[in-house]
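Fig. S4 source data, part A: sequence.
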Amino acid sequence: MVSETDTSLIGDALVVLGAAGVIIPAFARFRISPVIGFILVGLLVGPSGLGSLTGDYSWLRHVTIGSAEEIALFAELGIVLLLFSIGLELSFRRLWQLRKLVFGIGAAELFVAGAILGTALLFVGNLSTAAAYGLGIALALSSTALVLPIAGTKSAVGRASFSMLLFEDLALVPIIFVLAAFSPATSGNSTELLLTTLWQGAVVVAGLAIGGWFLLPKIFAQAARAKDPELFLAASLLVVIVAALATAAVGLSPIVGALLAGLMIAETEYHNEVEAITAPFKGLALGVFLISVGMGLNLKSIAALWPQLIAAVVGVVIVKAAVTAALLRFSGAARRGTAAEVGLLMASPSETTLIVLATAFQAQLISRETAEFWQLVTAIGLTITPLLARIGHDIARRIEMRNADAEIGEEAPPRRTVIVGFGRVGRIVAELLREHGRPYIAVDADIDTVAAARRDGFTVRFADVARPGSLDHLGIEVADAVVLTMDDPVQQLRMTRQLRRKYPDLPIISRARGADHAAALYQAGATDAVPETLESSLQLAEAVLIDLGVAMGPVIASIHDVRAKMRHDIMTKGHLDREPRIPKLRTPGS
């Protein structure tokens, strides 16, 4: 027989799954972050929304959730899976490269912002010194669960954010123990307990790393031999849960174990398969966490305290954004635009802030009313995180555009390669030029593309090449070459003609869609036109023929014949007096 508890759990699962099925597609259609949608669902179906009407309308029990505690376990699982997926994207080598950001900027951001907020609370609130600075540190924490899905870990913004968030996650346990040590009812053994937890945690982490190094390849090899996706999923969840429970058992945060599990699997050859299989569970579980955040918003309390809440949220955001941006900028770890974007992205409190607030309340450092007030501030801050991310992105873009001419114009070398268009092709060309020490400057008409490229360290500026005179300030008269990579055949032909008329000796290398377009570009004056579909098609055909058992010699001969025919077609259609240059395909062993 199904019990009332089971029915309640099924009802909660129905609400969550229904929200995921409706919110994600609806918000994706309007290009709005589903984060906001999940939080609004939590507000709607939570105890201060429709849940408050269940006494009058009993049928609402089937579409509402009574309290955040009912789905707390699923919310914690969402954060664990999120950290696991982040670990899959990293490696121990990359983590070592970030050590200065983690223990330098990350530590400074947490303690400087915590000290400023704590000092402010000491003067404006009726709090003891320990309570004020404990609250300051709690509010200085930022949301791993929201920031990393927005920023990722591979961009300049993502790397800086991840480094600071990683330090905060590592510092969570010492923060909790220090607050407990300041409790009026403390027994005096908190320091000893903290040291015990730290050395036990170090032993567990080392044991997990060593065990994972030897066991994980064997475990996933067995799953791969079985060719059963369910085994991969079961093995992945087993590794995550064991690692999370092991770190939690010695007093560390389970998210440390989850991150370590991801890092260990990332070092194996099975990480792509694991990442693909666990991705849907991560997104759904994270949605549950966001719903629990929305359920923490009490509309009656917000209405009664809205002036104080607004002042508190604005104050926290301003202090954290200013401290984070200043540290990144003055340490030289980020450009101005990147520092501003990271500052606003990290400006809200965190889900771990709620944990620290609960600890401070249990330690009798703060009253229940104070804890509930700052819990509301935290919930509101989490809700506006996507908005702050959008504002930070726009501000970063304006900063990069404002400084583009000043940084590039005068200081750039007089002779350089000019790349027109900075999509995937232009970026690859720029990376190779930079690797070989060849100066270049790239232009693009998309402001977001330019801002993102400049944050990643590329020399790019905004220019709409369709506008007459837009390239006159790039020094094309002394350029080594011009590379046309934009995906607009008509514009490429027009620019090639204009450049050839004005600069007869300038090398012009252009991307071409196919043989006909390449022939037209040669007629317009291009030095080289590279058909973008040729080499990928030839390499694909080569792989297919070799896998089918055709000998390497005949395959290479066939590819040479196709390339020769392509050269002949371009030469004929373009009325060329020389054979166009199509590089020889290099094959293994050739």
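Fig. S4 source data, part B ends here. The radius of gyration is 29 Å.
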